[in-house]
Amino acid sequence: MNLIGTYKNGNYNVQIYDDGTKIRENDLDNLTPDFAESCDVKLTDKCSQGCKFCYEGCTNEGKHSDIMSQPWINSLHPYTELALNGNDLDHPQLQEFLEFLKQKKVIPNITVNQNQFIKNQEKIKAWMNEKLVYGVGVSYLNPSIIPYVQGIENIVIHTINGILTPQDIRELSGKNLKVLVLGYKTRGRGVEYKDKYKEDIEKNMKFLYKFLPLIPPVFKVISFDNLALEQLKVQRILSEDEWKEFYMGDDGQYTFYIDAVRGTFSKDSVTAEKERFDIGDKTIDEMFNKIRTRYAKIPV
To answer: Which of 37, 28, 38, 35 is nearest to 10 (CA)?
Structure first.
């Protein structure tokens, strides 16, 4: 575990390590930021995997963002973490954007679908070696991905609560894998898919909820987004001290969502359209301050 960087944000200090570990610390009873630690950024609506439950509604004909022309990218703070959706990795400005972020000492992590990871694995590994990308999320489709990702430290298998089946868990278990469980989002194609397969989705959710206390040891790391934390009530299996150590805060508290395709920002990716705001010429700090003023449960 190597230190990537340190910085002061508001009333606390942050240390970031190359295995994804982040440490926040001060001597106070609150951690109040001046700027966002991280952002979830949608670069493209194009994806060839065609998941029937895709909450973003991505398709082969989806639109790419013109990311390099958006002024907010120039206001990013060093060591800000950006979670980028890469999907098919064919965004025409992706390489240029990653090189730009490296110059600014920004930490990009990218998500790509399973089929495209297999096709582009050498490119992705080169990006990781060159520190153009730090972490890679691979959207899970089937166990054929396992041999391609085993032994690569900063690759995380992305799964979805309700889509992840007991068989999937067995296939992924004992392979020394890092696994992220995302909450099921009833947005986009996720609405129709849940209506059609409600019984199967709920069955998978109930299985994961029931056996969650037994699952962590079978993976190298298991983590959850905030929606999955809520759906699975993960706090019930942790001690109070463990929860305080591992929980990274509510959406809008230290992070927010940018839709670079549509030019909007919001608390998270499932926020209703009426609660999304136009980016315009706003800086990253101006966007964050609008979000946390509206939602954060800590002083502003």
So the answer is: 35
pTM of the model: 0.92
CB 21 within 8 A of CB 154: no
Distance CA 198, CA 228 (A): 17
Residue indicated by tokens 């992070």? 255
Calpha distance 58→43 (Å, rounded)? 11
Label residue 199 exposed, middle or buried (CB < 10 Å: 0-12, 13-18, 19+).
exposed
Gap between the Cα atoms of 143 and 170, Å rounded: 10
Query: With contact defined as beta carbons under 8 Å apart, do 205 and 213 qualify?
Result: no
Sign, CA dihedral 187-188-189-191, equals positive
Largest CA distance in the chain: 51
pLDDT tens digits for range 71-104: 999 999 999 999 999 888 999 999 999 999 999 9
Question: How, if at all, do strands 155-160 and 135-139 pair?
Answer: parallel
In whole angstroms, what is the distance from residue 198 CA to residue 133 CA? Answer: 37
d(CA 20, CA 175): 20
Query: Is 130 exposed, middle or buried (CB count within 10 Å of its CB: 0-12, 13-18, 19+)?
Result: exposed
Would you say the C-alpha torsion 235, 239, 240, 244 has a positive or negative sign?
negative
Q: Distance between CA 26 and CA 196 in Å, rounded?
A: 49
